Amino acid sequence: xxxxxxxxxxxxxxxxxxxxxxxxLTRWREMMSYREGTLAGEDIEELHAMRVSSRRLRAAxxxxxxxxxxxxxxxxxxxxxxxxxTLGDARxxxxxxxxxxxLLPDLEPIDRPxxxxxxxxxxxxRRAEDAxxxxxxVRLDQEAFGARFEAWVAxxxxxxxxxxxxxxxxxx
Amino acid sequence: xxxxxPVTGIDPARRVRPNARKILAARIxxxxxxxxxxxxxANITDLHNMRIAFKRLRxxxxxxEAAFGAPFLDxxxxxxxxxxxxxxxxxxxxxxxxxxxxxxxxxxxxVERMLTGARRTHSPEDQSVxxxxxxxRLEAARRTDERPGIHTLIAxxxxxxxxxxxxxxxxxxxxxxxxxxxxxxxxxxxx
Lengths: 172, 191
What we know:
The structure holds 2 protein chains of 2 kinds.
Chain A: H1 16-32, H2 35-40, H3 44-63, H4 70-103, H5 112-142, H6 145-157, H7 161-164
Chain B: H1 16-33, H2 44-63, H3 65-68, H4 73-120, H5 127-141, H6 147-177, H7 180-187
Helix pairs in contact in B: 1-2, 2-4, 4-5, 4-6
């Protein structure tokens, strides 16, 4: 599993609001760093890493719910949940296909057609998931979701993503 | 999935630690709410809810690592993983059963289509040749060869589920015996 990015300048005795901004924005950028790899679809680990990051982001938002206005929070959380769920459906199929493929050579010949048929069915479903993922990110782009999300977090926490500079290498 | 209980008294202007303690206390409570319920292996929903409760606790320990150093993270993660594996079995068995039903529907549709085609065709050829051709098409339309593998998978998942549940109950008993709750609460300053 991809390691979580370190959160820059997060002091142990930070204000709750300040920590919220730093952590949520870091998890957001961490998740989006896997976007191109996920859309390219060449390595299933990219999608897995993006999904794991999206769950970290969702958990961070849940932890800091009291920092944000309830109404707008619900709207943003719903969208983040949609990302997690869409990636989750595809990931579940990737895991199932991988598991069945590994299992296949160890099975008795009589059992193999069943698994091959199931793998085939899951692969068809997985291709359909790609279309869902693409459609989701096209819509998020059209709605400028990323910029709006970062501005919303900045407004309520005072943390600006450009100053925070989240990245995989920690506090550079 | 059980929703997390709202936590009252959070003040965003205060430091992380006092606020985080309130959230962590609520999420630890939620894990222990399922203590008695998961003693029954048939309580699938409670096992699933306990997994979610452990997952929330695990993420919180990671989120507040700078404040508390993420105590007992490995133990929490290992319980979440174990319950996750049990959940996978609980989800996969009905999915595989649904796949068997799907195979049956696919087969019925193919056979029906074939029979409709046969009724329309009035072949002048010898009856035995026509019967042989019908038989081979019928065999191709049926998907009986795919069923044994799915039944085997279902049996494997059921056996795995029994083994995982035993592993889980042992691990959970051990954690409680080691006073996991008290030690975790102490480590983050709840008590």
